[in-house]
Amino acid sequence: MESLMRGTSLNSIPSPFLNHTFRQHDSRFTFGFKSPSSTLINNRRPSPPCLRAQQSEKTEEFKVRNSQDEVFATQGIRIRRRPPTGPPLHYVGPFEFRLQNEGNTPRNILEEIVWNKDTEVAQMKDKKPLYTLKKAIDLAPPPRDFIAALKAPYLRTGMPALIAEVKKASPSRGVLREDFDPVEIAKAYEKGGAACLSVLTDAKYFQGSFENLEAIRNAGITCPLLCKEFIVDAWQLYYARAKGADAVLLIAAVLPDLDIKYMTKICKLIGLTALVEVHDENEMDRILKIDGVQLIGINNRNLETFEVDISNTKKLLEGERGEKIRQKDIVVVGESGLFTPDDVAYVQEAGVKAILVGESIVKQKDPTKGIAELFGKDISA
């Protein structure tokens, strides 16, 4: 046990250990069940110099994270970017570690996804340094104009353009389609009149992949592609572009204003369109103050509770906000909870010019037919 735990951190501790404590008893360690918020019993053994140095570094890191959280809080961001575990406070025998508690347990599914993504991206960056991605981008075909692709069908038909989502599963609904062939689904969407495609690339929670994105790009699909990912690092923008994306999703519930400003500039630099997603009035007000945002998605799903209410779109487009959007010529995309022609008509009347739909069409045996049923008519002409 001693060799197993020496020098470990929360992320490397096998999950069975996370809800236990260790106690020193008759020179042996025994497991003891305690409440999640419990701390380790300190046996008061003096910390060696090397451990004190490590503690000092972790304390500084904790201070940085705390200051970031304070900035996020001033902007109404409730999602913490990383587990705020803080510096280690206890030295027990030859090792130290922290228990899972209220501070370092995700408070909702979005926070859990973001914490997992932060770790995942750190590992991916080691394997794919930025300079290799820049080389891949230089050799890649030019990006397709995502916004122009949305405006064209709206002008032609007077109905919202469709961003059809290639999506196998979700945390709230589980597996949506067992016989999941991303390329065949993408072809069916394009045949059914989709203006653009959204491709889920998160593997752990949505069973997606960047291989799916690449496969669709290389299959002769002409629709622009949105990389539907949880972006927490600018490196991901380069990775998405290198894998064939024409657009990426930036979530205001996760990213502070400075990150969104920085990332939208990088998107323009490398040819990506940024779809900035909001969920409430505060997030909409924040994004409308940022110059250069051309595409805003209103998600009717609360990403903390996963509850859906399509009236959210109407609420966020009323009054002064709607007027600012019209003045800035921002294209608004309605997202989540759209299953019928009445739903589409409702959000269109509220002011959207495009909709992003996954579940209601990907579950159909024939996604092409599913699109016609969603709009109440064939939109492929």
TrEMBL record:
Taxonomy, superkingdom: Eukaryota
Any idea what this protein is called? Answer: Uncharacterized protein
